[in-house]
Amino acid sequence: IVAPVGNHTAQVPLLLGSDPEDQPATGSLSGKTIRIASVPANGNLYYNGGLLAAGALIPAYDPALLQVDPDNLITQLSFSYEYLDAAGIASNLSTVTMDFRYETITGHVYHDPNGVTDAGGGLVSGTPLSSVGADPLYVSLIDPENAGTILATAAVQSNGAYSFNSIVPAGDLKLALHTIPGDYTSGGSLDATLPSGWSYAGKQRGTTAGVNIDLPVNGNFPLSVVASPFANVNFAVEQTPQADSKIYFITQPSVNQVITLNGSATGTAIPPNQLTGSDPEDAPAAQGLNGDNANRRVQLVSIPANGELRYNGSAVAAGDIITQYDKGLLSVALTGTGYTGISFSYVYLDAANVASNTATYAINWGSPLPVTWLSFTATEENQSVLLEWKTATETNNAGFYIERSTDARTWETIAFVASAYADGNAAQVTSYRHTDQSPVTGTNYYRLKQTDRNGRFEYSVTRSAVIRKTALSFSPNPVKSVLRVTGCESGDQLQIVSLDGKILMSQRSSGNTMLLSVARLPAGTYIVKVHSSGRLVSSMKFVKE
């Protein structure tokens, strides 16, 4: 018998007996008088919802009303009874023995590039795997009816298999596929996540195409206790496609001009070209995600606020899917007046129907600013400040004056970084960096004064970094069990972060020295970060042996 769940009970098998006068043939004792001689030592016996004790009489016995509730993880229990005939004479004692089995959950994780888009309704299949990149995979068993408490966590084995045995759920369950290391068997909560570059591609209970596919596609798999047993509860993952953002600057167009987005436009140095990207499974870098073969799927996330985006001559709308993207059929009509650019966004949909990042496609004209900014950061490193910034495009750019201030009002120039391009022009992402070796103690504010070759300039956003009186230090590195951080101030927030940005540990400082236990982290490279008043003041990579 399947062990009953939580406070539920199991029905006792039909009680049988015979009597030469009342019931000559052995059969059901339904309607007869039963006396319970002994009750289970490892469970409770109930009749019509009432707890029974040894010696209890059951007149007019109804088999559906006799129930048993075994103690947790009990595999067998027994009790005894006797049948009283019409004269009140008791029969011999009979013993009822009940065997119980508990839930076992098994399944596999597959690298499945087409997910559940197979013919016949979809099938989770592919190559078994136990890790994504350098991150091992885990499956956690969660009780969603108890604030998401984690009941157990199983590592996915080298053959892609995982299993949970002797499960006694308190109700419906949920499985979560994730890559967070550690021991989660003693409670807590968890959301299913994968590292950057990987996506969930499907989940299915069983191995028959189109049967028991669970939607939506994510890493959480709900399991209803009425659907047990739970065999072949399988997950599919795949590598996420990548779509490329693009920004083009063109000569002043005319009203109602139609520009085909395939690189064929004339009168501009870099004409707007086709959508591009890559996918490790469907389209490796050499082939690319593009419109040359007219066999890619593109979904439009947003359309231009001005003008009109068209495919094969017809206007398209946000949410539309182009099933056979052909670079020669996508165009923009520059209808109306009073604007100096258009933009839209899109994703690629791969064979598993997984969407790429959202990429932006923009076309500008008129008098664009000489640089399109992507990012600018200031980070304290060993009592110096590392400044890093990126540009998406550059037009006639001479370079960047780096300015510093202690009050964000009075600024001084501390360095100049020239454009990476001899002519100051670029249509691709460019990265820059500079280290301020002599920052002042306290808060240092930084901004970039981008200047073009004609003397025109613009300022970046302002960033800041804090230099402490006492430098932070981290030791040892590499580390086996305890990482020592000295130079802390009371209230500092210390974090251990994976290389893909997941926060694995967070602890608040209470003094100058903090000891961070990293013994449970798998071997690898991590980052320790120190925040003060919500601002990052220091970070360092370390190696866990």
Number of strands: 47
Major pleated sheet: 5 strands, mixed
Strand percentage lies at over 45%
Computed over alpha carbons, the radius of gyration is 34 Å
Class computed from helices, strands and strand pairing: mainly beta
Spans with pLDDT under 50 lasting ≥5 residues?
Answer: 183-187
Overall, the morphology is elongated
Please estimate the helix content.
Answer: under 10%
> Number of helix segments?
0
Kindly report the oligomeric state of this protein. Answer: single chain
Task: Report the mean per-residue pLDDT as an integer.
Answer: 87
What this model shows, in words?
It contains no helices and 47 strands. Strands 11, 12, 17, 19 and 21 form a 5-stranded mixed sheet that branches. It starts with 9 loop residues before the first strand and ends with a strand.
Main traits of this protein?
single chain, 545 residues, mainly beta, five-stranded mixed sheet
